[in-house]
Structures are given as C-alpha cells and as structure tokens.
Amino acid sequence: MKRTLQGRYETVSTAGEKVLAFVPSPLPPKPPIDWTPDLRSKFDQALLALGRLDSVSTLLPDTSLFLYMYVRKEAVLSSMIEGTQSSLSDLLLFELDREPGVPLGDVQEVSNYVAALDHGLRRLAEGFPLSLRLIKEVHGILLARGRGAHHTPGEFRRSQNWIGGTRPGNAAFVPPPPGLVLECMGKIERFLHDQPVATPTLLKAALAHVQFETIHPFLDGNGRLGRLLITLLLCDGKVLQKPVLYLSLYFKTHRQYYYDLLNNVRLTGDWESWLAFFAEAVAATALQAMETVLRIVELSTEDRGKINALGRAAESTRQIHRALLEHPIATARWLTEKTGITPATVNKSIALLEHLGIVRELTGRRRNRLFSYTRYMEILNQGMEPAQQAVTRRSSRGRLR
Q1: What value does the mean pLDDT of the chain take?
Q2: Which residues, in sequence order, are CB contacts of 363 under 8 Å at separation 6+?
Q3: Residue 376 in contact with residue 295, Cβ under 8 Å?
C-alpha cells in the first residue's frame, strides 16, 4: 500500500549548511498494514520456520556451546556490514589473546558486539524490560572499546548526523535533529510496550527495526544495534527461547534492496513491501540455521563415536572435544585451563584427535601451536565471504594471513 510521507521534514543547520532532517511519525503505521493473502502467508511461513528452528535447536547435545559460536558468527557478519575486516578466526584468536590478522580495532568491535548481545539477553532474562535504558546500556557496551569509544557510548546523540555522502548537503538521508531524538525514541519505547495498541512480536520487530534505523539515535553503532534489537525483541517476546536467529547475512546479501525498502517506507509509506522482505528474511535465515544445527549435531555425533572407540583415553578426549565445540580454535594451554586436565594428557588427547582427523594444527610449529576443529569451523563459516573464512597459514611472526 502506498501512503503519504511517513513523517515530516525539519530544517537544520549543520556543518555549515542547511538541510532537511526527517522526523518519522510514531508507530504503528496509519492507515494500518494491508494484510493481503500473500503478506499474511509470508508471515505465517516465517512464524512456522521460527517454531521449527526452536524445536530443532533442542537436538543439540549442548545448546550453550552452539550459541557461544553462533553469536560470534553473527557479531562478525553484523560488523562486516559496517566495513570491518575481522573474520571468525580473528575473533577466536583475539579471545585467546593471540595476534589477529586484521587491525585491532576491527576485531575489538566484533568482541564488543558479543558482549553487548550477552548483556542484553542477560538483562531480559532477569526480568528487566526492553526499554530505552536497556538500549543505552547495550550501546554503551557495543562502543565501550575500540574505534567507537569516543562516540559517546550509551548516550543519545547531541549533534546532527547523516547517512551516506561526504557532507550533510549530499547525504542519502538525514535523521531527526538531536533535540528530537529523545522524543522519537520515547515513542518507540511506548510502541515496544504495546502502546497505544498491542502488536504481535514478529511484526513489532519488523516495524521497530525500520523506526530505529530512521531515528539513528546514536553517533555510531546504529546499524549493529538495530540488527541486534531484532534478536532481543524475538527473545523478549518468547518467539524464540534461545537467540538462534540473526538476519545480518540476509541483509548483507540483499544490501541495496534492504536500503531501498527502508527509504521507500519513509517516503511512500510502503510498509507492506518491507514486511514481505522481512518475513522472507526470517524464513530463509531460520531454514539456514536449522541446517546448521543439524549439520553440527551430525558432526558432533560422528566425532563422539570415533572418540568413544578410543578405550581408556576416551574420557579425557571427550572433554577436549567438548571444549573445542565451545572454542574451535585453541591452544593446548587454553584447553588445559578450560578442562583442568594435565598438560600431558591434553597433548595426548590432541594427538589422538589429529589422528582421527577431527583436529588440525595450523602453525606447523613445535611450540605455540594452534589447533582447529576444522569441519566445525567450515560449518560455521558457511555463507561468509571467502576472504573472511578460516585461515590455515601463519607467518613466522604468528600472524594469520
């Protein structure tokens, strides 16, 4: 449905020139969403896919281990959209306190994303409402360290920003003036709390994402936080029991169309086209996540079968295998600290895992060696750009290439 402009323009002076800043109308859209049979079917399919994903995730031998790595994959993908070059391998090396193969700022941003999502989910589990306070807390962690630390983490912007272009005058989009940010975000908060009307969770997530990106309330990190907000909403609304759905890869794959849809919503009120895209993204991503879960279950079962045939060495090797499911690039020292097994036994278990073809050593050295659960990493890296995938060669300085 084509509506009118979904807001109003205000003239602002910034960076030495006057521009028109867009102030969105509050949610929900008016007139209401036109639920055509096709759009309703897409949302039904998305909800069905989410339900299946929730069910399939219970098959995992240890859901927490899967989530540990899956959240990190999402952090890498979401940060890639913003232009960072960190890979999943880089993040795992950073967490091991090793030297990653990209600028420290890139991998720090990804690490911040993981911490921010963990904080948001933990606060919701404690019963804290999804509110402006929580959004600002999550943002504070998202930009706590690295290149965004000077962009007032955890505080709504007090200056004008713009999207695209080299200056406000040639920007692709200019969000609301800073003096209206709190008012706009306050209206989002009321919408999230079902005021003035109750809104189904999946629809709420779709509408709120557009509104958040339109307001662009922070100086930096808006894209990452806007995508993270979708996951928080789905978990808070109990559509998902665990955070196993992330749309960054889908948005990244359809990047220009995604931006065009957001702009069309603002200019013409075509919410329906955006909602159709969002529902397709959820259904496709849920299917990919289900396939990933089933591949990991199959791999884990197959490898545990090999380990169980080791006899007396099986118990300690199973513990090393479980630790590698949590952190599939590791050192013998990290595995010793993680499991509490003696260094000698850890090294013996690693040698057995190498012999079984489960683990591969990456450095070719005798000291400071790195071990990779290679097939697990291959599953997790599916869909990521080749240049960002796991790397198996290191230079004489130990830097990933």
Answers
A1: 89
A2: 369, 370, 394, 398
A3: no
Tokens representing residue 320 in the block: 């090393």
- Those residues whose C-beta lies under 8 Å from the C-beta of residue 359, and which sit 6 or more positions away, are 324, 350, 353, 371, 372, 373, 374
Phi-psi region of 287 (alpha: psi -120 to 50; beta: other; left: phi over 0): alpha
| Residue 213 dihedral angles phi and psi, to the nearest 5° | -65, -30
Contact of 303 with 317, CB cutoff 8 Å: no
The distance from CA 154 to its chain's CA centroid, rounded to whole angstroms, is 19
pLDDT digits (tens, 9 = 90+) for 80-126: 777 767 778 878 887 787 666 656 666 778 888 889 999 999 999 99
Q: How far apart are CA 236 and CA 254, in angstroms?
A: 27
Could you give the C-alpha distances from 202 to 44, 178, 213, 244, in angstroms and in order? 10, 29, 17, 15
Partners of 9 in the β-ladder: 22
Provide CB contacts within 8 A for 382, sequence distance 6+: 292
pLDDT given at position 72? 83
* Contacts of 176 by beta carbon, 8 Å cutoff, 6+ apart: 10, 21, 22, 23, 24, 184, 215, 216
Q: Which residues contact 360 (CB under 8 A, 6 or more apart)?
A: 354, 371, 372, 374, 392
| Structure tokens given for 168 | 């406000």
Q: Is 107 exposed, middle or buried (0-12, 13-18, 19+ CB in 10 A)?
A: buried
Q: Are 23 and 176 in contact (CB under 8 A)?
A: yes
Structural domains in the chain, CATH included, are 7-291 (1.10.3290.10), 311-388 (1.10.10.10)
